Amino acid sequence: MNLYRPIYHFLPEKNWMNDPNGLLYFNEEYHLFYQYNPDADHWDTMHWGHAKSKDLVHWEHLPIGLHPSLELGELHCYSGCAVNDDGVPTILYTSVGEGERSAADGPEQWLATSRDGMASWEKHPDNPVLTLEAHGGMTIKDWRDPFVWKEGNIWYMAVGGIHEGKGCALVYRSSNLLQWQFLNKLCEGTEGIWECPNFFKLGDKHVLVYSPGGQVKYLTGTWKADYTFTPEISGALDANGFEGFYAPNSMIGPDGRRLMWGWIPEADRREFKGNAGWAGIQSIPRVLSLGADHTLRMEPAAELQMLRRNGIQLDEKRIVSAEEPLPIRGRALEFTAEFQLESDTPAFGIKLLRSPNGEEETVLTFDPANGTVSIDRTRSSLADEPNKSIVSGELDFASESDVKLHLFLDHSVLEVFVNAELCLTARIYPTLASGDGVSLFAADPKGVTMRTFKGWEMASIWE
């Protein structure tokens, strides 16, 4: 039994994977590209891996989509996007070499197309389609990760970068995807870099998502006639930083939903060798929407329900002890639960991957008094190497009457959704094969009322 390799999160058969790229629905299939090193389980020589799915859940590995064109001075095919240009699948990505073509000083935006249903790709002979010269006298560093969309007959592109020491997103337009005009600096922040910008409309607002080398941020606001974006609301896509959920990318599904995947890195394993030979997974697909207050809402895609097996359902009860074992065990599980909040509700939560004597366990805790939700990994592994820090996010319990939990455990990854407004993602590396227990707890005998609880074992997406 492999204690660490997920069975219902996407990952390649071996070697290194990072950012999701080129998300596209084409010919009734979902396509996922991703940053990939085909030669080792560490970052280097970036290619575009490729997979497809008919149902958003079960995936088929395909041949590598993009290879670096070494003969043209290209060493890496960095992140980007894919669009449907009147029936022609088209990739736009950042091409990187060395020296004057380095990632910091000389990246270029390149284009590739497919004429055989996305089985193979041809880079355009006129590449690059956009260079740093488009900015005139502006000096932009680390310019990368194009995100393209269409409004009417006009294509728009957002690209991340650094201007005068500040992370920013810049915006361009084109009528044909080949000739681009720089429009403006879309938005900038205080961080040192912005990577993988996504810019899209939800409801009556626009949303800008960016990855600043740490916690992934979002802004909702107004896109103005001068092509600048004015933020009105800000937040985080995930409570964890680079180690948990990073460089997300999104697409419009055939039903109009905004779907997003994020890279879940392997950084927290550090020198741990239990899962050597592969590194990095993709998150489960998240569905994005806007709340009435224009904050971002995030929920797991409903299609994942087809993986549920051997479900349990518990009646309402009061949780009053430090250990209330549940009649379900495993390393690939999904839970939904609802807890009633009262004025004096103590800390409460759920223990996962618990060994019989408690030597190993990962603890999800809701703490109304301190306004936090946390994943405590202090005892998640008997191995010394993995990161065992606590991942914590803030939640305004005072404004909630109930806490709604949706949790996904898949061997070495834990994804938690709380009230569709807070997400926490963490990697865990337990060593004991016997550690598959699950229990609820309350930190004080005053307890908490569990209104509902449902749980399922989860099947593999490769079956």
Automatic annotation (TrEMBL):
**Any keyword Hydrolase?**
yes
Q: Where are the transmembrane segments?
A: none
Q: Which CDD domains match?
A: GH32_FFase
- Keyword line: Glycosidase, Hydrolase
The family classification in the record reads: Belongs to the glycosyl hydrolase 32 family.
Stored PROSITE patterns? GLYCOSYL_HYDROL_F32
Q: Which organism is it from?
A: Paenibacillus sacheonensis
Q: Where is the signal peptide?
A: none
What's an example GO BP annotation here? carbohydrate metabolic process
Keyword ATP-binding set for record: no
This entry's Gene Ontology molecular function terms read: beta-fructofuranosidase activity
Pfam hit, one: Glyco_hydro_32C
Quote the EC number. Answer: 3.2.1.26
Q: Sorted alphabetically, which SUPFAM superfamilies does this protein's record hold?
A: Arabinanase/levansucrase/invertase, Concanavalin A-like lectins/glucanases
Which InterPro entries does its entry note? ConA-like_dom_sf, GH32_Enzymes, Glyco_hydro_32, Glyco_hydro_32_AS, Glyco_hydro_32_C, Glyco_hydro_32_N, Glyco_hydro_beta-prop_sf
All copies of the Glycosyl hydrolase family 32 C-terminal domain together span: 303-445
- What protein name does the entry list? beta-fructofuranosidase
- Top-rank taxon: Bacteria
- Show where the Glycosyl hydrolase family 32 N-terminal domain sits: 9-300
